[in-house]
Amino acid sequence: MTLGTSSRAALHAAAWSLLAARGIAAQTTATVDVGASTVRYDGFLPSGAASVTPAATWTRPGATLIARGSYLRFESGHRSLEGLIAASLFTPPALLPDGWRGEVTVSGGGSSYADFASFWHATGEARLHFVAPGRGAWMGATAGRTSYGSAARPVAVAGIGGWARRGWLMLTASASRSFIGDTAYTDVESTAEVGAGAWGLHGSVGARISSRGGGHGVYGAGEATRALSQRIAVFVSGGRYPTDPVSGSVAGRYLTVGVRIRNPTPRRPPTWDPVQRGRAPAAADGEATLAPQIEIRPAGDRGVRLLVRAPGASSVELAADFTDWHPVMLERVMEEGAWQLLLPVASGLHRLNVRIDGGKWIAPAGTTRSADEFGSEVGIVAVP
């Protein structure tokens, strides 16, 4: 898989996760892949190469930023460099009807091989998503410019797709029609991604049809990852990828074995870590404390008063469908161990979780507990 293709796939995967997940605070993840590869570009002999691929992803509710690069040193002594940066931004939920979200993505990158081949590209994409629990669909259009050491050529792409997520499995399917200068082709693709424990599996298959100057045929790739620790994983990946006139990659086959190093997930030592059935771990004196409890009270013109009782807590946060799953800090009130939030909330059933002292997001007592589309627990409350 080429750098441009894998980076766009990573950006779209992050975007689908943002649409489907319960919401996360802003966070940054970084990885460096170090591996050994064998590569065979169409029309060339196979060649071995050493590769280094750094990547960084910044995510927050409604936005994603990805920066990614790749350096290959071939046994012939030639080298290949690629780089890409892409950003995606979603429209606020209140801007469109329930279930619909808009997305704007911009990306730019370049590549060079030895001293004689270089590309650059810059594109922008607009998408309209329809999202339901655990599934969604989209349509979009891309426009931009790409160049191969000469005058830039226009880029225009129209596409549709859909995705579904069930527990550890995520499936996607898409179709697109691309026009790059006088080159035109249609791609139909599908992917499957599974994560369970220390293992991660990713596979894709596609076909290029109705092509004029962009090649044709079936392509696909797969990757298996095994985490050895929080920071180290090993992986093997391989397959065939098509020509990409936007990023300048030539169709070929590859096989890579390597080590992935990633930054540790920052975690605050939780002072509140409830376990099943609404109980917290035993305190220092051996007595267990009750899990946080939520109450919903009318607050007149100010909407509703969300009251969370969490004795001994230093901070309390709430994330819910009515906050777009953005964490919101509650304020301490005079009542012993009580924290509150005043918000205008529509009547009906709502989903929410709370977090105590930067610990885990949990369904508080006083809610109906249910598993969401990812198998995690969420609390359901009725607002009168």
Describe this structure in words.
This protein has 384 residues and is mainly beta. Helices cover 5% and strands 62% of the residues. The chain has one helix and 26 strands. The chain has a 14-stranded antiparallel beta barrel with strand order 1-2-3-4-5-6-7-8-9-10-11-12-13-14. Strands 19, 20, 23, 24, 25 and 26 form a six-stranded antiparallel sheet that branches. Strand 6 and strand 7 form a beta hairpin.
Gist of the model:
With 384 residues, this protein is mainly β. It is built from one helix and 26 strands.
What fraction strand? Answer: over 45%
Report helical residue fraction: under 10%
Which structural class should the secondary elements be placed in? mainly beta
Oligomer: single chain
Low-confidence stretches: 1-8, 20-25, 265-289
CATH architectural arrangement of the largest domain:
Beta Barrel
Mean pLDDT: 81
How many beta-strand elements?
A: 26
Overall domain count: 2
Radius of gyration: 24 Å
Question: What is the CATH T-level topology of the largest domain?
Answer: Porin
Strand arrangement, major sheet: 1-2-3-4-5-6-7-8-9-10-11-12-13-14
Total of DSSP H or I helical runs spanning 4+ residues: 1
CATH class of the largest domain: Mainly Beta
What is the H/E order?
HEEEEEEEEEEEEEEEEEEEEEEEEEE
Give structural attributes.
14-stranded antiparallel β-barrel; mainly beta; single chain; disordered N terminus; six-stranded antiparallel sheet; Immunoglobulin-like; 62% strand; 384 residues
